[in-house]
Every structure is written in C-alpha cells, then in structure tokens.
Amino acid sequence: MTRATLFRLVVAMLVLTAVISVVMLQFDWNGVAGSTEADDIDLLTDVMIVLSSFVYSIVLVMLGYSIWRYRAKPGDESDGEPIHGNTRLEIAWTVIPTVIVLFGAGYSWFILDEIEARDADRLQVDVTAQQFAWRFEYPEEGVTSTELHVPIDRQVEFKLDALDVIHSFWVPEWRVKKDAVPGQPTRVVATPDRLGNYEVVCTELCGIGHSTMRAPVVVESQEDFDQWVSDQGGEARGGAAARGGGRGAGTVAAEGQQIFDAQGCSGCHTLAAAGATQTIGPDLDEVLPDRSPQEIEQSIVDPDAELSPGFNQGIMPDNFGDALSPDELDTLVRYLSQNAGQGGGGQ
Ligand code: CUA
What we know:
Blueprint lengths: L2 H22 L11 H34 L17 H30 L6 E8 L2 E6 L4 E3 L2 E4 L4 E7 L4 E4 L6 E4 L5 E5 L5 E7 L11 E7 L1 H23 L4 H14 L7 E2 L4 E2 L6 H4 L5 H9 L18 H4 L2 H14 L8
Parallel strand pairs: 1-5, 4-10
Antiparallel strand pairs: 1-2, 2-3, 5-8, 6-7, 6-9, 9-10, 11-12
C-alpha cells in the first residue's frame, strides 16, 4: 500500500465517521433530560456514538478497500502471496484500539465520579421496594409516602432496599438507575433540574406484576415541596392521635386505604373503593364480600392456603404477615371487609 493510498483511506474513514455521527446524533436517544446527571450522561452517550462511528468507519473502509483491491481477476485463480506478519500493521491495530478503549474508560470514569459526588445539603429519601410497589420515607422530614416528591435543583440521595426480590429504581428522565437488593442497601443520587410529573419505573424483572411496578414522581419548587411535607406531616400526626383514641369507621377507611396503597395491594388487585384496577390477583370486590374477617386475614398472611379459581400458587408474596404490624393487619382486614364490593364508595 502506498503512502498516497493510505492517506486516501484515512480521509475516507474520517469523512465516513463525520457522516455517520451526524446522522446518529439526530436521534433523541435518551428522551427528555430532567437532572444535572442526565446532561452529563447524554454527553457521554454522544461521545460514545462518535467513537463507535469512527471504529465502524475503519472496519467499513478497510472491508470495502480489500474487496475492491484483492478481488479475483479474470483467469487468475491463485490464492495470492502468503503473508508472514507485518510489524507496522500489528503495532497500528494494537495501539489504535488501546487508545480508543482507554479514552472511553477514562472519560466514563470522569463522568461517573462527577455524577456520584455527594452534596453536603442533599435530601435523604429511603426507598423500599417490594412486589409490586414503592414506598418513600423522608427520615429528616418524618414523612412516608407512595409518591416521590422532590424539590427542584437539590441533590437527592436515595437509599434503596427491597423486602423480597431484586428490584431496580429508575426515573428515565434522571438517567441514573440502581438495583434495590434485599438486605443489602444501595445508594444513588440525582439532582432534578426540571419541574414536572414523572414516574419511578422498576427495571428488574421481579415477578408477574413487574410491569405495573411504578410510582408517581413530582419535581416541584422548594415552597411546594415544603407545603407537601407539612400536609403529609399533618396527616401522619392525625393518624397517630386517632390510633391512640380508638378507631371509628372513618379512621379505618383512611388508615386502611393508606396501608392498602403502601403495601402495594393496588399493584395487583381490583378494589373500587381504593381506585385499584389491576387484574394480576383476584378482584377483591368479587371475592371478599363472601369471606369472614378470619378468611380475609388468612388470604393476606398465607395467600396460598386457599386460592381463588384461576389463580396460581406463589404469585402473591407470602411475607405480609411480617411486613404488617398486628395493628396494621387488623386495620387492613377491617378496611377490606367494610369496603370490598362497595363499587366506588369512599371516593
Ligand atoms: Cu420490581 Cu420489577
């Protein structure tokens, strides 16, 4: 290969790299970006697209050149000259990929270091995942919720835990993603910088209700967030006071509803009174009116003891007896026996 040919091939590779990169960068691969981490990660994606285009161009140009240059000519059926190594070529195909891979690794490291750095004034949220629901606790604010509320432009550190199997915490607009592993807390940070409503999506196949395992996310101003916290706090204090002083029907409805939501029952069941519409498990409006409170309790703590027709063993988690305090279990049973079959009562 002459120097002039090599020069032309290199030019062809660079031109092709530019063309492929421009086309590939037209696509909005990751969608709306809603956090400072997302901007870093999207830039990383773009750089990797250009690098990949370069590697692809090298392969494509050399392939095309070889097909054209070493094609069989009429009447020539020989195999061509045998080759015994080419030191310069070997150095080139070792050094170039090494430089590309080292650059990719170094740059990824730099981005990872940046998006994992912790701010001193970050908000702490403890996330609990279980089949098939999310629960969010704000230890400093003393709030527990099934909705994730966060103020804009403040870093949030999520401590992730799972009660049964491995789940994975992901808000697509924030890009960052981390598994929630039973008994082994993991942490991930995000700094939301775009107001709006999003969703936590579970991205680890965790059972039959995996696709329904989502939770609302609200990114709001600091004032709205403070307002929400005090609203939640007010509710929580009212609930505790009511517990101390005996429970009326209204308290059972409110507390039972909260337990129903927090335990993820609505991720699998239909219950009109709770606005739940899932069909992975039996329709509670249909099956519960015929059952005694004892039978309802058994269905919660030992779901496989007696199965509704058409539903299999092992679908419903069997750890609610551990997850619920005796008090909560009692409230939930009373809530279910009072509200199943009500057809939207309490809404
Ligand atoms: Cu939890 Cu998928």
